[in-house]
Design brief:
FAD/NAD(P)-binding domain; eight-stranded mixed beta sheet; single chain; FAD binding; 36% helix; binds 8-demethyl-8-dimethylamino-flavin-adenine-dinucleotide; alpha+beta; binds P-hydroxybenzoic acid; RIFMO-like; FAD/NAD-bd_sf
């Protein structure tokens, strides 16, 4: 078997790459270890930057998103007994976000690939990469796939990054002393916009998926397990944190899904080795507080598509050689923003009174100074793509 680009992973990065390459007449095969059903049900991100939305629409896979996605023109920061709106329409005119579940994006991309005759294989076992220095190939389940290039889109726990020889990558990391417990609930959102809440009990986020489904997150200890969080405890804690302004009542309902997400910041540089190019979570992770992970995956894939098109159409390797450097500028901006939002809104050590005063001072600044609020807003909606 032979293809131009062998893609490992059918998450947003791998699927979008396969689709964008198809639009440029470049062939690919996507190898995914989980089932289609599993990939389509995995509840994750929900906030799409303007540039991500534009990319999906331009690529012809934004039809359902345009119909069902919820455009948002602001977010609320809630702390110290009051809510403060960060108004995108005023601070970053013309730019906004769209709330649309990552698994919906994934479903739309899988449907588009399959209806165009694309080769996406699920439940593929033992994917391994070979020959990265010159003529690469992939093996899986007793088969061999020869490729010109391999794209490692297999997430943080995949096989592609570990296949890069030791000593090549430089790794930058930060761990946080807490995790997020995320739930999906069958209940209409209690707010029209997302609420990021800082309380002395910890952080909470009110998000949503549709007019009838809400998504919530709670800061929990790093070693928390789902079994420790029966539904009543989750609602009680969400109420204790979110009902921290007068007149706000949180509606509750059936919890459809629960999960604990560790919080980590991670970058591996460079994002390439020989004929292997890493994209998305395979190369970098951000804590979800800034809602950047999925959007960064899309940004990487845009850059990689242009570089691969230059290579296959004109034989030019310049853009491929500069792939990592081109991506890392945006990656590090998102790293800083995500670390900063996380640091601002979560509780750290109990006895760190100095740290708490710094958080409150910065929250007061960001909610009273238009300049500071604009910094938050322009990063949140996403800085423009690099030319
Ligand atoms: P993915 O989605 O992890 O996909 C990788 C795919 O590779 C497969 N795979 C393999 N396949 C074959 N062989 C192997 N050996 C393989 N190993 C792995 C996996 O099964 C999987 O299908 O990575 P990708 O495509 O880079 O996409 C990245 C995003 O998924 C991630 O950054 C976001 O979900 C992060 N994130 C958020 N990002 C946002 O932009 N906005 C948000 O609001 C947001 N909220 C979140 C989030 C992530 C969360 N969790 C659960 C980590 C909220 C949460 C709770
Ligand atoms: C979500 O809706 O899943 C979501 C929203 C905002 C975030 C993270 C996750 O910062």
């Amino acid at each position: 078997m032979r293809t131009q680009v062998g893609i490992i992973g059918a998450g947003p990065a791998g699927l979008l790459l396969s689709h964008l390459l198809h639009l440029r007449g470049i062939s690919s095969v996507v190898l995914e270890k989980r089932s289609r059903d599993h990939v389509e049900r995995r509840v994750r991100a929900g906030v799409l930057e303007q540039g991500t939305v534009d990319t999906l629409i331009e690529a012809g896979v934004g039809e359902r998103m345009s119909r069902e996605g919820l455009p948002h023109h602001g977010i609320e920061l809630r702390y110290g007994g009051a809510g403060h709106r960060i108004a995108f329409e005023k601070l970053v005119p013309g730019r906004s976000i769209t709330v649309y579940g990552q698994q919906e994006v994934v479903k739309d991309l899988i449907a588009a690939r399959l209806s165009a005759g694309g080769d996406v294989r699920f439940e593929v076992e033992d994917v391994a990469v070979h020959g990265l220095e010159s003529e690469p190939w992939l093996t899986f389940g007793g088969e061999r796939l020869d490729c010109d290039v391999i794209a490692g889109c297999d997430g943080f726990h995949g096989v592609s990054r570990p296949a890069i020889p030791e000593g090549v990558l430089e790794v930058f990391e930060r761990e946080y002393p807490f995790a997020w417990l995320g739930i999906l609930a069958r209940v209409p959102p209690s707010s029209e916009e997302l609420i990021y809440t800082r309380t002395e009990r910890g952080f909470a986020l009110h998000s949503m998926r549709s007019p009838t489904v809400s998504r919530f997150y709670l800061q929990v200890p790093a070693d928390a397990r789902v079994e420790q969080w029966p539904d009543e405890r989750i609602w009680a804690e969400l109420k204790a944190r979110l009902e921290s302004v007068p007149g706000f009542t949180l509606a509750t309902g059936e919890i459809m899904e629960k999960g604990v997400t560790p919080m980590r910041s991670f970058v591996a540089e460079p994002m390439q080795y020989g004929r292997l190019y890493l994209a998305g979570d395979a190369a970098h992770i951000v804590p979800p507080t800034g809602a950047k992970g999925l959007n960064l995956a899309v940004a990487d894939v845009r850059v990689l598509t242009e570089a691969l098109a230059a290579y296959f159409e004109r034989g030019s390797t310049d853009l491929l050689d500069g792939y990592s450097a081109a991506c890392l500028k945006r990656v590090w901006r998102a790293q800083h923003f995500s670390w900063w939002m996380t640091t601002l809104l979560h509780t750290f050590e109990e006895d760190d009174a100095y740290g708490r005063r710094l958080q409150l001072s910065y929250l007061d600044y960001v909610t009273s100074s238009q300049t500071a609020a604009t910094t938050l807003a322009e990063n949140y909606v996403g800085l423009p793509w690099a030319p």
